[in-house]
Amino acid sequence: MISTHILDTNLGKPAAHVEVKLFHAETHELIATATTNQDGRVSDFAIKEFAEGAYQLEFEIASYFSSLKVKTFFPRVCIQFFIEDINQHYHIPLLISPFAYSTYRGS
């Protein structure tokens, strides 16, 4: 399973209503699209099967910051990661602010 969580570190709150796209990294084939909930989470992309390999999450954060009437330097964040074991849970959190972002492998 693949999940994500976005925290707006500038406000200290979850980033709700952000569109997140999941792609195969090598082919850039779109696999799924989801929107973060009120807690800034996408708990499951509803993928029944996936294989080992490289994937990419694209976070459309420009509209999120625009809704707050805040300018951002990064309109989109793209994170590539590699799945080695399809039986594991892959959680990719994203920390955002108008002029910075960071990520890590969550649990």
Describe this protein's structure.
The chain is mostly beta strands. The longest helix has 6 residues. The radius of gyration is 13 Å and the shape is globular. Helices cover 6% and strands 48% of the residues. The protein has 1 helix and 9 strands, in the order ββββββαβββ. Strands 1, 2, 5, 8 and 9 form a 5-stranded mixed β-sheet that branches. Strands 4-3-6-7 form a 4-stranded antiparallel β-sheet.
**Over all CA atoms, what is the radius of gyration?**
13 Å
Q: How many strands, which pairing sense, and closed or not: the largest β-sheet?
A: 5 strands, mixed
Report the portion of residues in β strands.
over 45%
Shape designation: globular
Q: Total strand count, please?
A: 9
Structural class: mainly beta
**Count of helical segments?**
1
Low-confidence region ranges? none
Give the N-to-C terminal Cα separation.
Answer: 11 Å
Helix-strand topology string: EEEEEEHEEE
- Give the fraction of residues assigned to helices: under 10%
The overall pLDDT, averaged over residues, is: 95
Task: Please give a handful of descriptors for the protein shown.
single chain, mainly beta, five-stranded mixed β-sheet, four-stranded antiparallel β-sheet, 1 helix, globular
Brief synopsis:
This protein has 107 residues and is mainly β.
Layout of strands and helices, then pairs:
Elements: E1 2-8, E2 13-14, E3 19-24, E4 30-35, E5 41-42, E6 53-60, H1 62-67, E7 76-83, E8 90-97, E9 100-103
Parallel strand pairs: 1-8
Antiparallel strand pairs: 1-2, 1-5, 3-4, 3-6, 6-7, 8-9
